Amino acid sequence: MQVTLTNVRIVDAESELANGSIRFRQDQIIADAHDGEGIHIDASGMTVVPGFVDVHTHGGGGYDLHTDDYRQIQAYARWAPSTGTTAFLAGLVGVPGGLPEVQINAAVTAIEQPGPGAEGVGIHLEGPYINVERRGAHDPAWLRLPNEAETRQLLAAARGHLRLVTLAPELPNAPAMIRQLVEAGVTVSIGHTDATYEQARDAIPHGITHATHCFNAMRPLLHRQPGALGAIVEAEQVLGELIADGVHVHPAALRVMLRALGPRRTVIVTDALACAGLPDAVFEFGGQPARVIDGVARLADGTITGSVLTMEQALRNLVAIVGVPLNEAVGMLTRNPARSARVAERKGLLQPGYDADLLLLDGDLQLHATICRGMLAHVSGAWQERLGPAVPR
User: Fold this and answer.
1) Residue in 58, 57, 63, 56 with CA at minimum distance from that of residue 78
2) CB 5, CB 17: distance < 8 Å
3) What is the pLDDT along the chain (393 residues), one digit of tens a residue?
4) What whole-number distance in Å separates Cα of residue 322 and Cα of residue 243?
5) What is the 3-state secondary structure (H, E, C) of 114-163?
6) At what angle do helices 227-234 and 251-261 cross, to 10 degrees?
7) Where along the chain do its domains lie?
8) Annotated catalytic sites, by residue?
């Protein structure tokens, strides 16, 4: 069945149409077809944007992605569309004394047995190859040094689903690990690093093309010691993450980094934990007890751990607080992360042949419907009657 949304504002990173139509059949966006074909839904006053791609999340809605139970990840996938997320990388961290192979296996199982909701398009392994001096909320017992044999072990365990690895490139043997991962088709990210400007500048050419939560868990940008941030900004091939919650990075610093990286190199992420989307919660991060205090996720010692941010709130923050034009903000949550997740050929744009991952937003950028690969995954009460009978669940 072909479905057409008419009289709608269409916005993605490449184009903007004030009043147009967008069509999809089954799981793909299609080009203009016979106007009378299929079901037409008048969406006057609404905006359609591509579904959000979150490449750095550890959970939300009470569901943990770092888990030994693949059903937790499937449950997260059903919840995520309520925040506008239609694709995600399952964020894993380290474990004491070894590799998180049990958690990797759970993520692989969830990816290979997809259900309704957001699509798990791979795994983001944040650590364990990070610097203890910039570990943030990561337990020191999780941390390890890069090792070529372990790299092969990780790749084998992930069965082709490892998409992003955060590591500190100043660690011994890191350059060899970076090259191994890149050769295997994995995006390598600099993060949780104490690298100097010179160390980061020398490491990036080995294959680093992504930077994990810029400003956070790395040296600050100083006028005589620019640190990793200076090297990241100068390297045109590197995309940089920003957590747009107003807690991890001050809005003024967000504006500075957005100008430095530009709209094509900025990736907005949540770095969300299981508590995201919950007003008050007690939860765990990698087995460490944590709770939400005044809207901020913290460990028992007060250390900030991840966030409670959701993607649709990040979009509103960028537009209303930071002053980013809508089409640029949309690109930072869709096209750019799709590049780092290596799914940009089918996600992140509203183009024929792309997955039918669509969001319906009102004038205040409130989310009213999420369509994941042509299936209705979330809908507000106001739009249930119009979309419910037309778009399959």
Assistant:
1) 63
2) no
3) 799 999 999 999 999 999 999 999 999 999 975 556 889 999 999 999 999 999 999 999 999 999 999 999 999 999 999 999 999 999 999 999 999 999 999 999 999 999 999 999 999 999 999 999 999 989 999 999 999 999 999 999 999 999 999 999 999 999 999 999 999 999 999 999 999 999 999 999 999 999 999 999 999 999 999 999 999 999 999 999 999 998 899 999 999 999 999 999 999 999 999 988 876 667 666 677 767 756 676 777 777 666 789 999 999 999 999 999 999 999 999 999 999 999 999 999 999 999 999 999 999 999 999 999 999 999 999 999 999 888 888
4) 12
5) CCCCCEEEEEEEECCCCCHHHCCCCCHHHCCCCCHHHHHHHHHHHCCCEE
6) 40
7) 2-49+350-387, 52-340
8) 271
Specify whether the CB–CB gap between 268 and 332 falls below 8 A: yes
**Lookup: tokens for 151:** 């790299």
Distance of CA 330 to the CA centre of its chain: 13
CB half-sphere exposure, 132, CA atoms < 13 A: 6
Helices and strands (H and E) in the chain: how many: 11, 21
Domain 2-49+350-387: assigned CATH number: 2.30.40.10
Q: How far is the CA of 231 from the CAs of 36, 242, 264, 349, 355, in angstroms?
A: 54, 16, 17, 29, 35
What CATH number does the domain located at 52-340 have?
Answer: 3.20.20.140
Residue pair 162/202 in contact (Cβ under 8 Å)? The answer is no
